[in-house]
Design a protein that fits this description.
- By secondary structure, the protein is an alpha/beta fold.
- It has a single domain, classed as UDP N-Acetylglucosamine Acyltransferase, domain 1.
- The protein has a six-stranded mixed β-sheet. Strands 1-4-9-12 form a four-stranded parallel β-sheet, covered by helices on one side.
- A hairpin with a 4-residue loop joins β15 and β16.
- It starts with 6 loop residues before the first helix and ends in a 13-residue tail after the last helix.
Length: about 170
């Protein structure tokens, strides 16, 4: 038999305790919301509203300075073996995202992982192992495909060939 879900519960999924809709908050507002929940977040970091931090921010997650998190999931716990081990609480391990990282849309970072300084996690990547500093990782499971500087150099060359791929008005094209 299907469980009835009230309209109020559905609406509340999109509204935080301060009464603001999560889907229309700015990254700055959303970052402050996570800080208020106790997540350690460095200065100048932006967390977009469609980001999920494990157990609503109660997982041990540390995010450095100058990072951008877009539509990703960061999980610092695992309950998959609780029944077999006779545990009532999830195993927890911290996730550390060092300074100057970009975490792409729909990527998943699992417990115990350290994302090295200046790294890029590509959209859809599933990260279950540490990422070296200044690396680009993609895929499931995430694999290092190169260095950030190499990606920047390739993009600079692409800009020369196809400037139309790189809009000048960056305020509307984040």
């Amino acid at each position: 038999m299907k469980k009835k879900v009230s309209l109020t519960k559905i609406i509340n999924r999109f509204i935080n305790r301060s009464g603001q809709r999560n889907d229309i908050m700015s990254p700055e507002q959303n970052t402050e919301l996570w800080r208020k929940k106790g997540v350690q977040i460095g200065e100048n970091t932006l967390i977009y509203p469609n980001v999920f931090l494990g157990r609503n921010g109660r997982d041990p997650i540390i995010i450095g300075r100058n990072c951008v998190l877009t539509g990703c999931t960061v999980i610092g716990h695992d309950a998959s073996t609780n029944k077999q081990l006779g545990l009532k609480r999830s195993m927890i391990q911290p996730v550390i995202i060092e300074d100057d990282c970009f975490i792409g849309f729909q990527s998943i970072i699992l417990m115990g992982v350290r994302i090295g300084k200046g790294s890029i996690v590509g959209a859809g990547a599933v990260v279950s192992k540490d990422v070296p500093a200044d690396s680009v990782v993609v895929g499931n499971p995430a694999q290092v495909i190169g260095k950030v500087q190499d990606l920047i150099d390739r993009r600079k060359e692409l800009m020369k060939i196809h400037p139309e791929f790189f809009p000048v008005d960056t305020d509307q094209n984040n």
